[in-house]
Amino acid sequence: MLGFIGGGAMAEALLRGILAKGLVQPDKVWVSDIDANRLSYLKESLGVQTTASNTEILEKSRIIFLAVKPQVAPVILSELKGLWEDKHLVVSIMAGVPLSYLNKYTGPARLIRVMPNTPCLVQAGAAAIAMGPNAKEADVDEVKALLSAVGKVVVLNESLLDAVTGLSGSAPAYVYIFIEALADGGVMAGLPRPVAMTLAAQTVYGAAKMVLETGEHPGSLKDRVTSPAGTTIAGVAALEDGGFRGLVIRAVADAAERSAELGRERD
User: How many CB atoms lie within 10 A of CB 29?
Assistant: First the structure.
């Protein structure tokens, strides 16, 4: 049985991907949440089993995703302290909650920490997995298979999850700003707003897909588009003059540092 404590947007995204791939059948999934309307929605739309009791999730499930907001983690974990068993594989997707903190509450359970991102909602996510106390390689493989239903997955040491948070965890926001700016440029050049937005978003999607599918370095792909004395090199020069690369690097680094600060506060 697969269980989710918390039935919010990220939990729903993971569930939709897992169910769509046929990795688990709906009647083998249990979800708890404090919002009765949310539970009704998940039951009707996905066919999963629902309950208002977190302890029932532990009774019914072997793999349990902790998918609540980090702010409520102390309340949820305190409620369940002493109820975990070594049969439980606990998968936390709570940002900024270290494995050492979780282990104080989950005892003999096997722990895995995951840093997903919001594009999981459209099955195009990027997630990092860190193995925690009591977990085995087989547990990592099992969680990786589940998360692969909604995107790309990498396995790293927990010490690198702050960097993951600064990059894939936070970068969707940076990319949205970039898409909006591209569209604004198109509008300035005379395009209707809807057309500019479609072209901007599709261009970012296509460029990212080329990086992933060709395996080529982004610089090499950039050079292919950049003809001598052409339009693209003029645009690239404008980005370089504005410090574009440095700003992006700084954004990732600052977000990673903030993630580390939050983790230290929690631990």
Answer: 23
